[in-house]
Amino acid sequence: LSQYKFIFIGEQHGKEHIPKKVFSFVNELQGKVIFCVELPQQCEDLLQKYLEDEISKESLYASPYLQAALQDKRLRPGILEMYKKFFRKGILIHCLENDEGSPEQRDKNMAQRFFDIVQQESADYYLIYAGHVHVMTKTREIFGIPITPIPMYLPKEIVQHAVVLQCLEEDCVVHCEFER
User: Fold this and answer.
1) What pLDDT score does 39 carry?
2) Is 0.90 surpassed by the pTM of this model?
């Protein structure tokens, strides 16, 4: 992964072993890493306080902005443990979602937030960690709904230097495949 400046990691929400595998990949990167996650921007300060041990997990989970993420298991103990490990290693964590936009605008808004982070903060690696449909390499229809994923909204200069790693888990075994 170290040959790519932009790494988009897709996951199945709610799977226990994917965060451990993702941590092992990201942990090998040397240099400044910015790790962007599929959580509302409105709770980024609260997440930071949790990572700094200023608030409890229960206080974090009480945020009204995180209820959907808790329900669909984007946020769970294994993920928080991975975020804590990254934080201790000096990896910056940013939230991409904007809870105020329409569902149709979700990936477009996350792409804009990611692009803003790339423009404002210098790093050796920029990662997106989101549900696998959000980082696909092309527009697809899922359950009759057209999905235009984050990479489709990003400038070609970013996408050309990016790799997508799709991580799926079955029977406690994690399979990660590259998409280009």
Assistant:
1) 96
2) yes
